[in-house]
Design goal:
single chain; four-stranded antiparallel beta sheet; disordered N terminus; Neuraminidase; mainly beta; eight-stranded mixed beta sheet; about 5% helix; 2 domains
């Protein structure tokens, strides 16, 4: 076993080597990549410990470095050396787009820690590129780290990252009811959210005390959250504060439209101390000039568009045509559950919203785009009671579909595809409006019902489901158990064919902080970002953490 002091010294030497001709491009020493490694390990304190370089991971013997192209599952070059060698010799890397460097710390029995750079491009005209890569144990949670300069000493120190509102306020503000959506350049867009004075029951109207109009961008390369209204580009053009939502909101939807454009629909605002649904629609365009990146969507007459029915806690699904279906939720004068859906056409020359009736009013349902690309299957939810019914929504209206295997509120759903006997996998969910959760999962089609159920390790409702891009395994995170307590583990489902149940791995890890109702997004480093959410008691979290799944780039079999 390598001693802690030696591992740390080794990692610094690695960083120095990576800054030299170790990763030269095409044999030209003037073209270099520099990767600054830093590590995290659990030292028994609440946040754990960040170190420059690698911590002393027990059993660590080898370091493997791969240059990959994840989108095509290519391993372009790799090198594995004993940690005791203190050097990795990698003469050059191929030129290309959407490359990534993956690092694995290995023991005699397998990979125990790892990390990756963000995606990058490296061409014949590139001269010097610098990145940071965080190394942490695989299948574990770790705080997101960012570098800060200590006032007075000038020392640079790694600390857990937090949501940044320093441009507009003197504090850090936690939140629930916000969204996290990947951007096309590898960042994560965090929109809105608010504070509650008590934990709401699943599917119920939240007791919001404040909602936020800020928009944050999270950069996995640095670990920083930057408020869009106060970034450097906005300051240079004198438009500080302009790139904010016109209507602060929580429990809204944010739908990617392509080209780093995002449709923001509905949500709750606070009026007279009460949560009130809004029908406003806004557009975030990250490619627009600073100060104009948040826009009101207008119809063909030039008037500001809005929903036909104000709604929050709805689902929003983009169709292949570019339209967006928003369904159900809570709205009206008393926050009642809605039995309608709307199709929002976003094309500037024909922008409008058309409303249709649903067969059942529902909130807390799941929604998935079907293989035809123009219809949305909504499943479960609640309307006073937890629902077992499903329906298919399209421009033709609502069509009744097969029932779930059991009632489910706030389940997770994943489309398996059109082949074979099953279209979708539905996972977990609450069994009652005042509590209870199931750990079951089931396969089904809109026209033939659900079958072949299995069991998670832990019952959970309101969980987050993320597809791991390389292995196509399904990562299940968070949720509430049957007692309403936070589920802090992760587990993984693997589809094993239509005649077999899903393979189950886990549970893995424990979240560093208790949080429910967080927003989550897969980053291009391969880690899953968890941000904000409800803490025990009345607090909302202003911090973030990563889950580091074991999902390496492995070339497909020939």
């Amino acid at each position: 076993m390598v001693s802690g002091s030696l591992v740390r010294r080794l990692s610094v030497l690695m960083a120095l080597c990576l800054a030299g001709p170790l990763l030269g491009c095409g044999g030209d020493d003037s073209s270099k990549l520099s990767v600054n490694l830093y590590g995290w390990h659990d030292d028994g304190t609440p946040d754990g410990a960040f170190v420059q370089g690698l911590p002393d991971y027990p059993g660590a013997e080898l370091m493997r470095v791969r240059v990959t192209r994840p989108s095509t599952r290519e391993v372009l070059t790799e090198q594995t050396v004993p940690l005791s060698d203190r050097r990795i010799a990698m003469d050059s890397i191929p030129l290309g787009q959407d490359l990534r460097m993956d690092f694995e710390v290995r023991s005699a029995t397998g990979t125990i820690a790892g990390g990756s750079t963000p995606l990058f491009s490296f061409g014949s005209t590139s001269r010097y590129r610098a990145f940071r890569a965080m190394i942490s144990p695989v299948n574990e949670f770790a705080p997101v780290g960012s570098m800060v300069r200590v006032t007075g000493t000038g020392e640079d120190r790694l600390v857990p990252s937090r949501l940044d509102r320093r441009e507009l306020a003197a504090d850090w503000i936690g939140r629930v009811g916000h969204t996290a959506t990947p951007t096309e350049d590898g960042q994560v867009l965090i929109v809105g959210g608010g504070l509650v004075n008590a934990a709401p029951l699943p599917g119920s109207q939240p007791p919001l005390t404040e909602v936020f109009d800020d928009i944050q961008l999270f950069d996995p390369a640095t670990g920083y959250f930057t408020e869009l209204a106060g970034d450097d580009a906005a300051r240079q053009t004198g438009t500080v504060g302009a790139d904010r939502l016109q209507t602060g909101r929580a429990y809204h939807s944010v739908t990617p439209l392509g080209g780093d454009r995002f449709l923001v629909v509905g949500g709750f605002r606070v009026a007279g101390g009460t949560s009130v649904a809004t029908g406003t629609i806004e557009l975030i365009d990250l490619n627009a000039a600073p100060g104009t990146r948040v826009q009101v969507l207008v119809d063909s007459s030039g008037s500001a568009m809005s929903l036909n029915s104000s709604r929050a806690m709805h689902s929003a699904t983009r169709l292949e045509s570019g339209a967006v279906i928003v369904a159900g939720g809570r709205g009206g004068s008393s926050g009642q559950v809605l039995n309608s859906f709307e199709i929002i056409q976003t094309h500037p020359q024909n922008a409008h919203a058309t409303q249709f009736p649903m067969s059942t009013a529902r909130v807390g349902h799941a929604a998935v785009l079907l293989e035809d690309g123009e219809s949305v299957w909504v499943l479960g939810g609640s309307n006073d009671d937890v629902l077992q019914s499903t329906e298919v929504l399209s421009s033709q209206g609502s069509a009744t579909a097969s029932d779930l295997d059991r009632p489910r509120l706030e389940p997770a759903v994943y489309l398996l595809g059109a082949s074979g006997s099953f279209n979708a996998l539905v996972v977990g969910g609450m069994t009652g409006v005042s509590g209870g959760a199931t750990g079951t999962y089931a396969f089904g089609r809109p026209d033939s019902g659900f079958t072949s159920t299995g069991q998670l390790s832990e019952a959970r409702g309101g969980a987050t489901l993320v597809e791991l891009p390389q292995s196509r395994r399904l990562l299940i995170l968070g949720g509430l158990d049957s007692n309403g307590d936070f589920v802090r583990s992760a587990e993984v489902l693997t589809f094993q064919g239509l005649q077999a149940a899903m393979g189950l791995d886990g549970p893995f890890g424990t979240t560093r902080y208790e949080r429910a109702g967080f927003a989550a997004a897969l980053t291009d480093t391969g880690r899953v970002l968890l941000v904000g959410g409800k803490a025990p008691g009345e607090a909302a979290r202003d911090d973030a953490e990563f889950y580091n799944p074991r999902d390496p780039v492995v070339p497909p079999r020939q």
